[in-house]
Design goal:
about 250 residues; alpha+beta; 10 helices; about 50% helix; about 20% strand; globular
């Protein structure tokens, strides 16, 4: 993604990939890990997979930025290739990195993705992952440790993963989890950074992107992903991704 925003406000969301944002001009403000952050010109935003955050302009004239999403399997494969043995996944402790080397490495990746040269893409990706791990990660490659999740909260998440398009009630979800509605809500937010309804909506939006990638129309996508109608999908898609489903599909 390469975009300029002035008024747009990103709803709190996360990505199922590593996600890196390069602020080219202006500044973007966001909350992540319980604190307010700002990425100004030349800085890199580094989000671990499933890390909740939001975003909006921190200055009147807005901000311009590039966004690069790199899948976990791809990161693991590059690191294993570099180390010549299986490697764990890196963890980024700071959501904002002021590092010109990382900025330039990621900008090269973004540039090669737009040019369509597979060999150049692979080479730029290896260089960027190497730079990210050695300059931005909190420790050498190792399995990223997460706090233990209570069994009832995990059951609720697994149920939503399987039934994201269904109209699930709070009572139904708490029954599946085996605890009260209040305890489930509190535990879910503590474990994943989202209320169950926000998590379900994000699952629907990710499913919508996959459906749009296969050529489904926005109307078909809305119905299959669990949205009330096309306008409902469009409203939330734009709040999460900054563009409408039609624009996203056209850009693909």
């Amino acid at each position: 993604m390469h975009a300029h925003f002035e008024q747009h406000v990103y709803h709190r969301h996360s990505h199922d990939t590593y996600s890196f944002g390069l602020t080219e001009s202006g500044a973007q403000a966001f909350t992540c890990r319980g604190a307010a952050r700002t990425s100004a010109t030349g800085m890199v935003m580094a989000f671990n997979p499933d890390e909740p955050h939001d975003g909006h302009s921190a200055v009147e004239h807005g901000f311009t930025y590039r966004m690069v999403h790199i899948g976990l399997d791809l990161i693991a494969g590059v690191l294993a290739d570099i180390a010549e043995h299986p490697a764990g996944l890196p963890l980024f402790a700071e959501p904002v990195l002021d590092d010109p080397v990382l900025f330039d490495a990621l900008r090269r990746v973004h540039g090669t993705l737009r040019e369509g040269n597979r060999l150049a893409q692979d080479e730029a990706l290896v260089d960027a992952v190497r730079a990210l791990v050695h300059r931005g990660a909190t420790r050498p490659p190792g399995v990223a440790q997460r706090p233990a999740v209570r069994a009832e909260v995990r059951r609720a998440r697994e149920y939503l993963d399987a039934a994201f398009a269904e109209d699930v009630s709070a009572d139904e979800l708490s029954t599946v989890a085996g605890c009260s509605r209040f305890a489930l809500h509190r535990g879910f937010v503590a474990a994943y950074g989202f209320a169950p309804s926000d998590y379900q909506r994000q699952l629907r939006l990710r499913a919508a992107r996959r459906l749009l990638d296969t050529g489904r129309t926005p109307a078909e996508t809305a119905a299959e992903a669990g949205f009330a109608d096309q306008s409902h999908l469009t409203r939330w898609f734009k709040r999460y991704y900054g563009i409408t489903p039609s624009v996203y599909q056209y850009a693909k």
